[in-house]
Amino acid sequence: MSIGNSPNSPEEDRPSAGPDRPSVGRVLQQARIGAGLTVEEVSTATRVRIPIVQSIEQDDFSRCGGDVYARGHIRTLARAVSLDPQPLIERYDAEHGGRPSPTVAAPLFEAERIRSEPRRPNWTAAMVAAIVAVIGFAGFTFFSSGSKHEGTPIASDTAKADKPGPARTIHPRAPQPAQPAPSDSAIAGLPKDQVTIKVTAKDGQSWVSAKDADGKLLQDGLLKQGESKTFTDKKRIDLVVGNAGAVQLYVNGKEVKKVGDEGSVERLSYTPGDPQAG
């Protein structure tokens, strides 16, 4: 008996495709047709590219990029057409030299699938929001610190202290005179068909913005302590006042007793009939 005819010959043990044993690609193709699916529909469902699906159905695994990728594609396509992938993978291993040492295939063959680009965070919007927040905080700190330090004597010649010279006496700053309240005759002389507003930085500096009813900017800047601004309009005056606790405000000749707290920012709006409560 020759060795080639031995029942233990490796050639007889190795399975081969024949008329009664369709190939891996043929099995997948028949299952797809039986399920009523096109190649395009299988590609969409599995995200395996159309050329690769067509090649596998023709038993051409060269497009897969290796055995690990091929096994992953076979498993994915088999599940898409309701087949058990394990017998097909075993047949592929038998026909292509056996299965190598175990390797995690999923992360590798997923590189062939169609993936959408991840959405990137909108850093521009985040930066703009951060800048606005910083500017607002800086403005609030400026108003608060300006009102607290107003009137504090500062020795401007500190840098020259090492030079001999006569002693200097620093006199405290004289308090600012209070703004006189408008007399009854002055109030009576104000036009009744318009709004008149007088803003005075009485107890410290204040930032003031004023607009008329049409949105025209009448004032937008810093009032130093003791400075005043007067605004008139036939319909309305809109104010934004920083460090509102330091401001003295007259509307149509009547004092507004409480404009706001020290360091606060207030938004106010007045018409010819205001203030209603005097």
Automatic annotation (TrEMBL):
The keyword Transmembrane helix applies. The chain crosses the membrane at residues 123-143. Signal peptide: none annotated. The keyword Transmembrane helix applies. Residues 204-268 form the Cytoskeleton protein RodZ-like C-terminal domain. Pfam families: HTH_25, RodZ_C. Keywords: Membrane, Transmembrane, Transmembrane helix. Gene3D superfamilies: lambda repressor-like DNA-binding domains. InterPro entries: Bact_Cytoskel_RodZ, Lambda_DNA-bd_dom_sf, RodZ-like_C. Residues 1-24, 149-188 are annotated as: Disordered. This is DUF4115 domain-containing protein. It comes from Streptomyces yunnanensis.
